[in-house]
């Protein structure tokens, strides 16, 4: 970490920009999105607009990893909810497979389908 005396003028300007950005609750990005600096600030904004869905507000927040995150209007279907609950149950029971195992199984199924089609 450099001291202020060791920084160039451009580095100092960038540091000041970063400090100011961290102090404000939101800013407008280059694509016209309101970007909130925390999920809590974003949630407060959404609460002030109960008549609009999150996608209508064109807003997002910066998560703890520094990535823009968006709330979704998407609602799971009954089938999707059942599949999600089944997955959670299997994880809780310790009956789940790794991504590699899942891929291997899928490739095996696809190979069987191709063989059956021939």
Description:
- The chain is an alpha+beta fold and 118 residues long.
- It has 2 domains: 4-69, no CATH class; 78-117, no CATH class.
- Helix content is 53%, strand content 10%.
- It has 5 helices and 4 strands.
- The protein has helices at 9-23, 39-47, 54-57, 78-92, 99-117; strands at 26-28, 34-36, 59-62, 68-69.
- The chain has a 4-stranded mixed beta sheet.
- The longest helix is centred in the C-terminal third of the chain and has 19 residues, at 99-117.
- It is elongated, with a radius of gyration of 23 Å.
- The chain starts with 8 loop residues before the first helix and ends with a helix.
Outline the secondary-structure elements.
Layout lengths: L8 H15 L2 E3 L5 E3 L2 H9 L6 H4 L1 E4 L5 E2 L8 H15 L6 H19 L1
Parallel strand pairs: 2-3
Antiparallel strand pairs: 1-2, 3-4
Largest sheet: 4 strands, mixed
| Portion in strands | 5-15%
Q: How many structurally independent domains?
A: 2
**Segments where pLDDT lies below 50 for 5+ residues?**
none
Structural class: alpha+beta
CA-atom Rg in angstroms? 23 Å
Annotation keywords:
118 residues, alpha+beta, 2 domains, four-stranded mixed sheet, 5 helices, 10% strand
Compact description:
With 118 residues, the chain is an alpha+beta fold. 53% of the residues lie in helices and 10% in strands.
